[in-house]
Amino acid sequence: MDMERQFRYKNDYFSELIEGYAGTEEEALRRGAQYGLASDKHALLIAARQDARPSSGKSLATEGLTDYQAGIERDRHYGLLEQAFARTGYVCVMFVKHGGFGILLYCEESALNEGALLAQLKDISEMLYREQRLSYSFGVGNPFTGALNVGASYREALHALQDGDRMGKKRFALLYRSMDVGRLFRLLPPEEAERYYRESLKELLGSGEQEHGEMLRTLKAYYENHCNLIETAKALHVHRNTVVYRVEKAEKLLGRKLKDARTAFGFRVAFAMEEMLGSENLAIRNE
């Protein structure tokens, strides 16, 4: 089978799984074995989509192109994304769907570091924009096993993308599992959400801009990694002692432990609101 036929076969196969596979799990696994699908292997779906131009709703790279030109541009994007994901260390399978791309990413659910994965996706997004002026965002579905659950994870990833769109974000990476809480927060007027955010973090925002930025990034990663110092250090690419120093300083400023249940809940809510409001719109002002 030549490369073009293999490409079409792969796209057709994943399209069937997403739209509603008519066969059995056993048959779907048999066809998907060449892509690594197995009943006991954990994977998740990532939806990658180019950000649209606000005025037209069309992607920046394909607007005004013929179908043939758009196909060539799509193949170029496919190659760039494939190269970028090859450098993540994950085993990935890419396909084309809904005018964007799907990435089947294999992972051990117990070992999946969501914070680190999101950081890698954001790095890919920033790299594509910096080097190619391509603005891409990523939605991440929940982990699954088997073949017939591919569609559910992909739809979750699309919901995450749609949620980012509603927040007016560009070049973002969002997990689906935080969406329910996010929808509750969006019932609040934006000014009330921002007020809660600032009041929750006010004890930590009295220092210089660089220092409070480092402190907030550390605390966000700390909670994303379940208060694990080693995993937090890995996510931030700093030494463990740096994380220890920042955590201890935060606890000194707060007068309480970060692992305290009420403290942890308050910070998690504040950081979730930061995701909703957009950190770029929350430039902290020293008062």
TrEMBL record:
Belongs to the CdaR family. Pfam families: GGDEF_2, HTH_30. Residues 24-162 form the CdaR GGDEF-like domain. Gene3D superfamilies: PucR C-terminal helix-turn-helix domain. Residues 216-272 form the PucR C-terminal helix-turn-helix domain. It comes from the Bacteria. This is PucR C-terminal helix-turn-helix domain-containing protein. Transmembrane segments: none annotated. InterPro entries: CdaR-like_regulators, CdaR_GGDEF, PucR_C-HTH_dom, PucR_C-HTH_sf.
